[in-house]
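The material for today's practical consists of a large collection of protein records. Getting from the letters to the tokens is the skill we practise here. To make this concrete, we reproduce a full record directly below:
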Amino acid sequence: MVQIKVPSHRVGRMGARRIYEVLRDQILGRVYGSNGSLPSSRALAEELGVSRGTVTVAYEQLAAEGFIETRHGARPRVAKAAVETGRTGTKAGSCTRKARVSRYGERLRQVVARSTEQPRNLVADFCYGDLSPLDFPVPAWKRAVTAAITQRPRTLTYDDPRGSLRLRTALQGYLWRSRTVRCEIDQIIVVNGSQQGLDLCARLLLDAGDRFVMEDPGYPMARHILSATGAIAVPIPVDANGLNTARLARAEARLAYVTPSHQFPLGGVMPIRRRHQLLAWTKKVEAYVIEDDYDSEYRYDTKPVLPLHALEESEHVIYLGTVSKTLSPTLRIGYVVVPPELQFAFSAGKQIMDRHTSLIEQEALATMLDTGAYDRHVRRMRRRNDERRRALIEALRRRFGERIRVEGDAAGFHLVAWFDDLPKKSEAALIEAARAKGVGVYPISPLYDQRQPDRRRGPNLVGLIMGYAALEAHQIERGCQLLAQARDQFRSR
């Protein structure tokens, strides 16, 4: 007889679903062997104190799923195949079998690092890309979202994969007045952040075996996304003036990824001569260039630098922008301005990926752009981040003096701090000592292409990429104080 172990006061309340679950688990646990008999429906109903119909429903479900075999006038029997192919009792997560994935999936396993848990309870975390939640324009965004929700459309339906017409119209005006980017509305594709824009570029413009130009050092996620197609990265070193365009002649690439207005991570600005050289190269070899204008709103020394897209002969430029650095990376809204001949391909690619970006957020952003709330917020954030930038530079100079060099601090919300008295081999020890003090710091060396023998470890000195947009002045000061203590502590070992 079956042994269904439940509290006695609940036996009378057992339903067909619970009976089915217990019997299924016992069958898989080989309680009845490989082809043993189960109790008759009448006998089991009497034992459990339920109606025969309840047991019959449970048996019918087991039979439908192939766990038992039934025959009129006979007791149900375990289906041998169900036991042989059933669960083996291994714990979840203990499987050592390697997943069978596509070539694309295999490349992702190789090029994209596993995500790691963010450190918590730090006194100061200088992680680049983080923003302060106190900076988010809650009242303005709340009003804009409420307005978007209360507008009742005639029907709830899928929208244009290129994005809301209202948002693309607002972006057209914003790009012209803020970045001198002139384009038609149909050239703008609204995406889920610049990362999806890069993914579209990768899928639509690269095949396995193609070559693409990457800045070295450069944005690692861009390299991962483009490499996932099976294309091959061609790293070109950067200097104080950005990408060394003189080396493009030997690149033989179909695509280039650049950050000309504020090179990531070193901060250089590509001069006009190199910009024209880059555009001439794209025209000569029929290549496209992705211009990632990721933080152009934050320029502290001069007005924002003219983008590649605003120059003559820029018909091969794909302009990439985002609100992740102005509003929040949690919103996942970006935009791509593509050449006219790529409009259909990008629209179709976006539709295949996810139909379109969330319309409520699109309409809310359009409202902020139309009312001027977005521009006012950007101006306010530029002032706040300039104050944080100055606080970090002053704190580093106060704590380290001439032992440190600061680069790339004229724009964006990160800078690079070079420790002139610390060799590269000290990098791990410094980061570990700082973490023990409650300070999160991050090396610049992983941003260099690791395949280059002469640059495999990046520069010979310790360099930290330090973000400051999520920190307040007192956190910056305390963080630099503890970082100096950590440095002195591991140096004295």
